[in-house]
UniProtKB/TrEMBL annotation:
Family annotation (InterPro entries): DUF2848 (IPR021269), Fumarylacetoacetase_C_sf (IPR036663)
Name recorded for this polypeptide: DUF2848 domain-containing protein
Domain of life, per lineage: Bacteria
Length: 225
C-alpha cells in the first residue's frame, strides 16, 4: 500500500494506512441523522439497527487522487472530515478533508459492501487536531457535485473528533496508521449527486484557511462479458 503524504503547515508528514474506518449515521442531531436515513431510503437502503455505525474497509481504499473510476452512473461522494493518526503523540493526530465515494447501486444490498466499491479520497493538506480543537465545531464542511453546492454545514453537526478518538481508544485502534472518516451531513436533493466531479472543503473561519480534496469521476468502459 502506498503511504499518504500530508502537508502540515509546510511540514511533510507520511502515513502508511493500516486501518481504515468509515463512520455512518454520525450526526450530532437526530434530525440530521433521520434526514440522511431518508436520503438513503429513497435509494432503497434499509435503515440501520443502531447509530452511529462504524464500517471497517480495506486500507488501500484511502487515496489522494484526482480521478475516481466508476463502473456505472450511480456512484457519488459524501462530504466528510478524516482523522489520521500519524504517530503516537496527541499532536500527531491530523484533521483533513475527505470524500467517501460510494456505489449507490450496491448500497441497497449492503452499506458495508458499497464502502468497499469506491475509494475514500483525502486531502493533501492537514491540520494538527490540537491546533483547531478549541474551535472545531465552527469549521465549515462544504461539498460541490459537478460544481454545484450539494452539502454545506459545520463540524458541529457531526459527532466530534474527540468522540471518535475515545471510540478508537476503547477498541484498541488509536494507533499509528488508523484513518477514520466522520460520516456526512444531509445533501440538497435538488442537486444531482451523480455528477462527473466532487470537491469537499474544510474551512476554518478563524484563519480563513481551507483544506480541500477534489476529483473527477471517470466512467469505465462497458464490460466485455
Amino acid at each position: 500500500m502506498f503511504p499518504l503524504r500530508f502537508d502540515v503547515r509546510g511540514t511533510p508528514v507520511e502515513v502508511r494506512v493500516e486501518t481504515l474506518l468509515n463512520a455512518g449515521y454520525a450526526g450530532r442531531s437526530q434530525d440530521d441523522v433521520a434526514a440522511h436515513v431518508a436520503e438513503l431510503a429513497e435509494l432503497g437502503v434499509p435503515a440501520p439497527t443502531r447509530t452511529p455505525c462504524l464500517y471497517p474497509v480495506a486500507p488501500y481504499l484511502a487515496m489522494q487522487t484526482d480521478e475516481v473510476p466508476a463502473q456505472h452512473g450511480r456512484t457519488s461522494g459524501e462530504a466528510e472530515w478524516a482523522l489520521v493518526v500519524a504517530g503516537p503523540r496527541e499532536e500527531d493526530v491530523l484533521l483533513t478533508a475527505a470524500c467517501d465515494h460510494t456505489d449507490r447501486a450496491l448500497e441497497v444490498h449492503g452499506v458495508a459492501w458499497s464502502k468497499q466499491a469506491g475509494p475514500d479520497v483525502l486531502g493533501r493538506r492537514a491540520w494538527r487536531l490540537v491546533d483547531v480543537a478549541d474551535r472545531v465545531d465552527a469549521i465549515t464542511l462544504t461539498a460541490r457535485a459537478g460544481g454545484r453546492v450539494i452539502q454545506r454545514g459545520t463540524l458541529g453537526e457531526l459527532l466530534t473528533p474527540a468522540y471518535w478518538l475515545d471510540e478508537l481508544r476503547d477498541r484498541g485502534l488509536l494507533r499509528t496508521g488508523t484513518v477514520l472518516l466522520s460520516g456526512t451531513i444531509p445533501m440538497d436533493a435538488e442537486v444531482d449527486q451523480f455528477a462527473d466531479s466532487w470537491r469537499v472543503e474544510l474551512g476554518d473561519p478563524a484563519t480563513g484557511d481551507v483544506i480541500d480534496c477534489e476529483y473527477a469521476v471517470r466512467r469505465l468502459p462497458e464490460p466485455v462479458a
